[in-house]
Design a protein that fits this description.
18 helices, about 80% helix
């Protein structure tokens, strides 16, 4: 039993140790934890970009036919939309049931300084335009996940359609060699990850002890967290059961990725661990895992859809907008499609929601009130996103 789940037990032990160290409140220890956590986050972000590109290129170039690639893509997008809409519907029902009240008006002014001063420059249209790269270097230099995905799709399809020449064979050998090198480096990072988990847990524990992430907004926070937990523990397991998969076995296999997402707050940075867990622990076919997971990392944002919907309704309600059924249904659609393509990076959903609310002329100073507690929300959302990615991968793997 221990040997089979050795990695998981080590990770949980590191989590408990880090939590205890952070609770001590020693300044020098907190500084060390911040330093180590930052290093690990940067290292995983470093390998995430080439992981996305190489995984999609190699998978598309080696698929047997265009029909097979189309089938993989259709199933991935279909289950992504189903799970994201499910998350939005759960959030909408909970918001209607709990019905958070308005905040005291005097809180708005005090929160004004917490919101970015250049909100008028934020535009979701600009975000969509930035997805289309105008050169090969910018997407990789900026870490724009959706742009990288588009470039990888283009290169992979082009490789698949190239004539069977020696040049194509040589190019493929180089690409597959780079991917093998990358995954060897990732295995080394994962082997050393317990030290990073100690640092992440200590960092979080110190923040909680210092009161950085306490002081909730009551019903609003209850709605956000409740819809996240319902999606994680009820809705997504029901999807797995409906497809003939064991939810507990799937969750146990993907626990390293879910824990990694919880602490890094970045599904893109977690991607190497997600792929490794899917292939080596869940038993997913590499051609499926390396195709489905990079796409899901970009477009499958269950937690983000719920956050955008609940927060938008809450902010607009405080701005005097009547939240009736047509408004709720409209914002359900906006939240789902806005979440698709949102960057899988820390606070991506927060700034996207801020952009949407700025465009509506809503009282965005409320976003400043939400900001101090967003750390916890972001952690749980990201874990939910990665768990949803894992579920989609498991379902597609079974159906292919």
């Amino acid at each position: 039993m221990f040997q089979k789940n050795k990695q998981l037990f080590i990770w949980i032990g590191a989590l408990l140790l880090g939590g205890a160290l952070g609770y001590l409140g020693l300044p020098w220890l907190n500084t060390v934890a911040d330093f180590v956590a930052t290093i690990y986050t940067r290292l995983f972000q470093f390998v995430a970009v080439p992981t996305i590109a190489l995984a999609v290129v190699t998978t598309l170039s080696s698929l047997g036919s265009q029909a097979e690639a189309g089938k993989l893509f259709r199933k991935t997008i279909s289950y992504t939309l189903l799970t994201t809409f499910a998350a939005g519907i759960v959030a909408l029902l909970l918001y209607s049931w709990v019905a958070p009240g308005n905040l005291p008006a005097e809180l708005f002014a005090s929160a004004e300084t917490s919101v970015a001063s250049n909100t008028e420059q934020l535009s979701y249209l600009d975000h969509l335009i930035s997805v289309i790269p105008n050169n090969i270097i910018t997407p990789f230099a900026a870490g724009n996940v959706l742009s990288i995905l588009l470039v990888a799709f283009g290169m992979g399809i082009a490789l698949a359609k190239m004539p069977q020449t020696e040049n194509r064979a040589t190019l493929l050998r180089v690409i597959f060699g780079l991917q093998e090198l990358l995954f060897t480096a990732i295995r080394g990072l994962i082997w050393a990850l317990p030290l990073g988990i100690v640092a992440f847990a200590a960092q979080l524990s110190a923040q909680i002890e210092a009161g950085v992430v306490v002081g909730s907004l009551g019903k609003y926070v209850a709605v956000i967290l409740s819809c996240n937990f319902l999606q994680i523990f009820v809705v997504l397991p029901l999807f797995l059961l409906a497809c003939g998969l064991n939810p507990w076995r799937t969750f146990r296999a993907m626990t390293p990725a879910v824990l990694m997402a919880l602490f890094t707050k970045s599904s893109a940075a977690t991607l190497p661990v997600t792929i490794q867990s899917a292939e080596e622990r869940l038993g997913a076919q590499p051609r499926v895992a390396r195709f489905v997971l990079p796409i899901c990392t970009t477009v499958n944002m269950n937690g983000c859809a719920a956050f955008i919907l609940v927060t938008s309704l809450f902010v607009m309600q405080n701005g005097g907008v009547v939240i009736d059924l047509p408004t709720m249904l409209l914002w359900l659609l906006i939240a789902v499609f806005s979440a698709i393509g949102n960057a899988g990076v820390p606070m991506g959903c927060y700034f996207l929601t801020l952009s949407l609310m700025a465009g509506q002329g809503a009282p965005i100073s409320i976003m400043g009130i939400i900001l101090p507690i967003f750390t916890i929300i972001d952690m749980i959302e990201t874990a939910e996103n990665v768990w949803s990615d894992s579920c989609v991968c498991a379902i597609v793997n079974k159906e292919i």
